[in-house]
Amino acid sequence: MNGSPVLELLSFGSAGYGDELLRGFALTMSLAVGGYALAIVLGVLLSFAALSRHRIVRTFWNVYRSVLMGVPSLLVIFFLFFNLPVLMQMLTGRFLDVTPLTAGILALMLVYGAYVGETVRGAILNIPRGQFEAGRALGVRTIPMWRHIILPQAVRLAMPGLSNIWMVVLKDTALVSLVGLNDLVRAANVAAGSTQRPFLFYSAALVAFLIVAGLSHVVIDRLDRRLSLKRLTAKAA
Amino acid sequence: MSFNVELAIRLLPDLAAGLWTTVLLLLPTFFFGFLLSIPLALAKRSRSASMRRPATWYVAFMRGAPQLVLLYFVYNGFPYLGLVRDTFLWVFFKEPMFCAIFVFVLNHAAFLAEIWRGALKNVPKGIVEAAQALGTPTWLIFVRIEFPLAFRIGFPAYRNEVVLFLKATSVVGAITVFDILGFAKEAIDLTFDPFTPLAMASLLYWGMVQVVQLTFDRIEWAMRLDRQA
Q: Taking a contact as any Cβ pair under 8 Å apart, which residues of chain B between 209 and 228 contact chain A?
């Protein structure tokens, strides 16, 4: 186990794995951010479906939630990775190569969209009914009412749930390395295998994840304080 | 992309073996993870910093690290440690299954500890003080009053965590343990049918999650305070 010194192994260029790790890290982050952003969009739409007046739309939501929350995200990644090309061919008649990146981002979107939908649905349900009624009594129309009255309050209520989901998405990006995407985890795994220095490289990957998680906590705390009722009412007064 | 019934039937024995592996992974994870989480939660709320600090760091580390990396760390990394390689520990750590259980127990305990810590904070102080005033020993207060109440408060979060770990075990294929998803993946490679094996695997996982949910519904019902009055 008397390999090259640590600094050389983590350096950039042909001698070290620094550039591979950094590229992997960039990919991990774009997966996490991309998947999370899409999950939020899908989740908000799904929460509307969950609260819909139409029974059939609600049934769709219930089935969607039950399936996507009932199977592992790795299974969804495998499913998309292996089936999307076939599905696309059936739909468009052309062969489309589905990259692991597409499969990964779509899988994160579909799975965590369900969790976001559940969180946002809960947040909207927890807004007192009086808010809707007062809005209607004042003659506020549907869209301005959602934009200025309901959603700002829903965001505050959904914040803790949404922050949790971000943390989980961040860690779940690691799964995409199992369909061959060169993310941070795979880069670390390859480096660990070829240099026989597993502790060094896995620790590097863990440290990167922990730093991002730590920074996220700082940002979330800030946002929490910004959105807190105490501060808002103090400003109004 | 269609469901091949004949293949599905041929896959059943393999998937049953995979299901058995998943169950074998889960039972020790849930049992030992739960046991370990209680002292961890107590350490986290301890007044002495030498107890609190390591526990806090441990929980933060375990909650922030992807399970896949932890699995690689133990399965690929530990054989390089003299302490593991040259002692009786090797008997255990050379088994990928043991490595997986080892990682999941440690990981699960950290997540549960965080739940119990939050729940213990929300147990009404007056109840504990009343017990103290009656001269109840501290350990008995914890066993009979504090923890049972905290367990009720943390129950929904606990249920979520159990479901999450059930699904999380599907990564063990990465360290050569063949669970449900492992067998399904192998079937794809052998039959070139990308749909049927994964559909079957989804059904199994989904069914397991439903069983867990029903079990927890049942426990929740049994714990209802108005039933015990």
A: 209-210
Domain boundaries of chain A, sorted by first residue: 6-236
Q: pLDDT tens digit string along A148-194?
A: 988 888 988 999 899 999 999 999 999 999 998 899 999 999 999 88
Pick among A63, A67, A82, A212 to test the B interface (most B CBs inside 10 A): A82
Dist. CA B104–CA B62, nearest whole Å: 10
Domain CATH code at residue B179: 1.10.3720.10
What's the domain count of chain B? 1
List Cβ<8 Å contacts ≥24 apart for A200-207: A200/A6, A200/A9, A200/A10, A201/A9, A201/A17, A201/A21, A202/B69, A202/B72, A202/B73, A202/B76, A202/B77, A203/B73, A204/A10, A204/A21, A205/A21, A205/B69, A206/B61, A206/B65, A206/B69, A206/B70, A206/B73
What is the predicted pLDDT for the residue at A168? 94
State the ipTM, two decimals.
Answer: 0.91
> Which uninterrupted H or E stretch holds A83?
helix A73-92
B175 inside 8 A of chain A by CB: no
Distance of CA A11 to the CA centre of its chain: 31
Instruction: Spell B149-186 as b/e; 16+ CB within 10 A means b.
Output: bbbbbbbebbbebbbebbbbbbbbbbbebbbbbbbbbb
What is the extent of the structural domain holding B214? 5-228
Q: Residue A188: what pLDDT? A: 93
CB atoms within 10 A of CB B95: 14
Mutation site for A-interface testing, chosen from B19, B22, B69, B81 by largest number of A Cβ within 10 Å:
B69
A138, with CB counted inside 10 A (0-12, 13-18, 19+), is exposed
| C-alpha torsion sign, points B213, B216, B221, B226 | negative
User: A6-236, superfamily in CATH?
Assistant: MetI-like (1.10.3720.10)
